[in-house]
Amino acid sequence: MPSQALPGFRDFYPDELELRAHIFRTWREVARRYGFEEYDGPPLEPLDIYTAKSGAEIVGQLYTFTDKGGREVALRPEMTPTFARMVAARANGLRKPIRWFSMPQLFRYERQQRGRLREHFQLNCDLVGEPGPLADAEVIALAIDVMRAFGLTEHEVRARVSDRRVLRSLLTAAGVSEAQLGDAYQAIDKAERSRAPELAAQLHAAGLGDAAIEGVFAVAAIRGRPALEAALADSPDGGAAAPLFATLDALDAMGLGAYIDVDLSIVRGLAYYTGTVFELFDAGRTLRAICGGGRYDGLLLALGGVDLPALGFGMGDVVLAELLKDRGLAPAPAANVDVFVAAVTPEDVPHALAVAHELRDAGIACEFALGGQPLGRQLKLADARGAGRAIVIGPDDRARGEVVVRDLAGKTQAPVRRDAVLTALASGAAVAHTRSGDG
RNA sequence: GUGGUUGUAGCUCAAUUGGUUAGAGCGCCGGACUGUGGCUCCGGAGGUUGCGGGUUCAAUUCCCGUCAGCCACCCCA
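^ inputs. structure came back:
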């Protein structure tokens, strides 16, 4: 048994890379539709840009080492610190709002499971410089439109949306103190996965009273806009949800309302979110989150020293690829070549090479048999390669100054003058492409 | 990092309460088929049964360890 890839790392065979390329193409195409520009940064960064934000305990989940210059470095586990640095460095010169996206490969040293590896690619889209609710709608809409571009409908993917400003208002009204908010968020985040008595015990240990604990569970159970509006009716700060509602209205106006579930159990694990938070899930909830993001208005100040409102999301390729395969939405295998050039006898081979290279110069993908196989075997290979046409060159054809152009799907063929091969291919029956979708 | 569970050709899976040479389909290579492909038929290559140890006359099968996958926890930047 030869060595294999490290746990959590992937070898991409051609058919798997095909899916990855499909995901990358789609990510770029949809981001472009929203006016986002692509950027990138180094995959290796100083360790402290990650510990500064998340504390030293994060080191256990990073790939770190000391480089030959004595620097503590880490393979990037996330893009946000790099993004914050880049934005901060040129903040004054960049026209706001900034719409940037990237597709970094990220690394984290953790026990892998389905949908969670030690290495993955992640679409990061961030919008900086706009505090208003339309920015939130733009970012959520972009995430949803990526799903739609893959052919995923509102029956297959759900966007669960909440807002930390709303959570804070409701929890405060229920008697949760400012200092206890973090514990309350954590309990809400786990509400669907953990048992209520355990969570209640943890909250109790954090100093919450019975009424406040009950309030936390009540908030975590809010689903849908009417339920949220009802809860807010009893709240002293009913206006806390105004931005969220404006964002939801905007998504409705875009025609994407069918994808949205107001779901107050969504808080996101990160401490730095300040407003809208959202996650995308497959409708059956059999997989991990496809995408997560939200508004982080204080983070650029903390990381980069520029005080700009911002929000964004990250969408990994692993869960997405699982979902596309489950739903039969992975692209059909592409044809390797458009045309296969077959030589009947060894004497025909130089002529086949000349024709093949003419086609290649003209931008047509073509292949010929390297091993002098019989014609039948060559055509078999042409078929396996998905070629739409074959060009057959034999002594008889050459004697007439011709080649045979065969339509492999239609099983028809016709002689073509040797010097008219290119024009015949261009004007004849369309070269078959098996690719569908993004071709 | 903790606990549970599963590991048999490239892939999907078989192998009678432990029994002799570990099989099949798909895929791959070749032949039937040296100027016409997808089908069919025939043949071939490909396995230290994840790895190591133990029990036994005998281990793919039972036990232990280890590695890897999966599930839950942790974490989810």
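The two ends of chain A are 39 Å apart (CA to CA). Chain A has a mean pLDDT of 91.
thumbs up if we can close this ticket
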